[in-house]
Amino acid sequence: MIIQLIEQSKHIQELELRNRDLAKEIKRNKELSPSIQILQHKLERAESQLSNMNKLRREAAELEVENTTLKKEKVSWYLCILIRKYFSQNFLFAL
After folding, report:
1. Rounded CA gap, 38 and 44, in Å?
2. Separation CA 56–CA 49 (nearest Å)
3. Cα–Cα dist 12/5, whole Å
4. Cα–Cα distances in Å, from 95 out to 37, 63, 78, 83, 84?
5. What whole-number distance in Å separates Cα of residue 7 and Cα of residue 66?
């Protein structure tokens, strides 16, 4: 019976020590919680900005393709005008 009391007393002391350690850990976690929430918010904001940036890159690439196409079309029109001018002048001289 005395041995059981001694063992129970030791076990209670171990539990109390563990309880203090856990209480300290909880206190530390509560102190860190606002910092973690701030970091989570910043991470969400950065992820959103990254998503927007990727969208803008895709749009820029599409606009670059469109721009290149329009420049080629412009050159084509300009060449057509020059060719028409050239032929119209040569046909006038030929007449």
Report:
1. 10
2. 10
3. 10
4. 86, 47, 26, 18, 16
5. 82
